[in-house]
Design goal:
Aspartate Aminotransferase, domain 1, four-stranded mixed beta sheet, about 40% helix, globular, binds pyridoxal-5'-phosphate
Length: about 450
Amino acid sequence: MSTRNEQRGNGATNASRRYHEQARAHIAGGVNSNVRLGGTPLCFASGAGSHLTDVDGKVYIDYALGMGPNILGHAPPAVIAEVSRTLSIGQLFAGQNAIELELATQFCGCVPSAELVRFGLSGSEMVQAAMRVARAFTGRPEVVKFEGHYHGWFDNIFINNSAPVASDDPVPRPHHLQSAGQSRIASDDIAVLPWNDAAALERYVVGNAGRIAAIITEPVMLNTGGILPREGYLQHLRRLCSDHGIVLVFDEVITGFRVGLGGAQGLFGIRPDLSVFAKALGAGFPVSALAGRREIMELIASGRVNHSGTYNANVVSVTAALAALRELAAGEQAVYRRLDSVGRALMDGIAAAGRRAGLPLQVSGLPAAFHTCFAEHAIHDYATYTRADHARLGRFLGALLNRGVRPTGRGTWFLSSAHTDADVAETIAAVQAALPEAG
Ligand SMILES: Cc1ncc(COP(=O)(O)O)c(C=O)c1O
């Protein structure tokens, strides 16, 4: 193994711990997103390609990838070059720029359902825009979301991401607010349903269609496990929405530009009415999008529905996204063929290591974004996921981090085009070594 590999591992290192102690004096919790609270407090000096280097100089193969955005790896040269080139032309004009138009043209050419688009900065805010425009379009108040799905941290929708489960939970589910201080009434017109359950969905929709403006879903449940939609489920959802005049919103914040140039809607061949993108769209730079049917998006175009934001379509964000789209589309989408083959090899290698170790290690999802967990039973929805062995997963992830392999703290693995066959081989070896510590 190389010197670089010998430097791997050791969990939170000395300099990271020192940093964390100092940071807590000035930054609430020492972190700037609650998602980073509680995990190993690593402080990073730099990232390049598939690797991160922490402040002690230790190197990690990174599968967290900024929680998904870095689809081209860290500091992708083509994107950095374009951003660097445009830094000197200014950042914000409170007006239009030619780059946003080029981006919008490319974007609408990639995403099957995108007739019109608006750009923003984060996924959370574009989910809000989607709900607002859907309500305006239908004249109805309610939005249906699914348990275990995450659509951002704003008051009205930050519910039932990780609610306790009881076998006699009614449909719709009782609201579980995720944060102290959340407004209770903000989510009054949100209904929470179980996901991947076509019968429960149909019963609820048929009984309440007159008041449902929108149904929002992650097309693949990637915020709780890596759960694929059951055969025909998304088609059923599409049909129900069409039959009852409900706006179908795909939250493609994770899947967009990650599972294919056309996102999950391209992969599964379903056309949502609206969809939300962020993460991989900017390859690490902050940019998001709301896109969809012209007649719905016209409500924003006409000014009847407000969507605003000082930093929307700033030069850096749209330049980065445009450069990323060019990279993703190059060579007849060679990036996606690569993600598919490298990701599959990794998924298969991890699953095989689990079998050899005699452990119920499950690997689920898609090659570009998959999940590992330990369970003897089949996992197909939120309730079954909650019964997985989370303590064992925590030990496994800790043992991997010690060996310089870094999936997300909840067991999700994101691939980038920068991951190499050698990374995969090294990762599988680390998994084999880590599994006995998880047992
Ligand atoms: C599916 C989904 N929707 C929305 C969001 C919120 O996006 P952001 O963190 O950019 O506000 C996330 C973030 O992880 C997400 O995974």
